[in-house]
Amino acid sequence: MKPKSTSLASRSPSAALFLALAILIAVGLLVLGRLVLATPAPAQAPVPGGTVPSTLALSLSEPSPFRRIGRSDFFAATIRARVTATDVPTKLSVVDGEVRAGRRLGHMASRNSILSPALEARAGAGLGPFYSLDAILPTPLRAWRQPLGGETAKIRLRQKALNARALRNHGKLLLVTLTAGGP
């Protein structure tokens, strides 16, 4: 024999409404209870301290093409450097990456031609001096005394030439370094 099913609504519409309201109130109280329990604790001030792994990262953009600076005999190009460092002090340097000594050191050159004077560089937003890249040791362009997280620095290169055609076939491989620690 099949059990007989009867709905609450068929017994009494007011009983069904009462049961539905009771269920809604119970669900509402549970939700309210969850909301109350889910509220975050009052914010506490961070506690200084801890250790951070040593990180040193340098990424470089493609250099822009050399463009004449005003009406002068100088042409300039820019390389953007993105620096991340946890150790301080941090230094950004540039050195000739092709030769260690001789007439071509720091100079843009082609097969048989060397531009004079040497290529120059500087970094930073200020109007600091340009440094000649004909030195054997890396030329420090910028230094930071605090940890860095994706700091951008512009490396500006400058070359004296009679015209843009003189630069066309000349090139120079530069080694850009980022060092941390030390004096």
Protein described:
This protein is 19% helix and 32% strand. With 183 residues, the chain is of the alpha+beta class. It has two domains: 13-38; 56-180, Immunoglobulin-like (Sandwich). The strands form two sheets. Strands 1, 2, 3, 5, 6 and 8 form a six-stranded antiparallel β-sheet that branches. A three-stranded antiparallel β-sheet has the order 7-4-9, with no helix packed on it. It is elongated, with a radius of gyration of 35 Å. The termini are far apart.
Attribute tags:
single chain, about 180 residues, alpha+beta, three-stranded antiparallel β-sheet, 3 helices, elongated
Return the string of H and E elements.
HHEEEEEEEEHE
What is the share of helical residues?
10-25%
Structural class: alpha+beta
The top-level CATH class of the largest domain is Mainly Beta
- The fraction of residues assigned to DSSP E strands is 25-35%
Principal-axes geometry comes out as elongated
Terminal CA distance reads: 95 Å
List how many beta strands DSSP finds: 9
Which stretches of 5+ consecutive residues score pLDDT under 50? Answer: 16-39
Q: How many separate helices?
A: 3
Domain tally: 2
Cα radius of gyration in angstroms: 35 Å
The CATH topology of the largest domain is what? Immunoglobulin-like
The major beta sheet can be summarized as:
6 strands, antiparallel
Mean pLDDT: 80
Annotated CATH architecture of the largest domain? Sandwich
Tell me which oligomeric state these chains represent: single chain
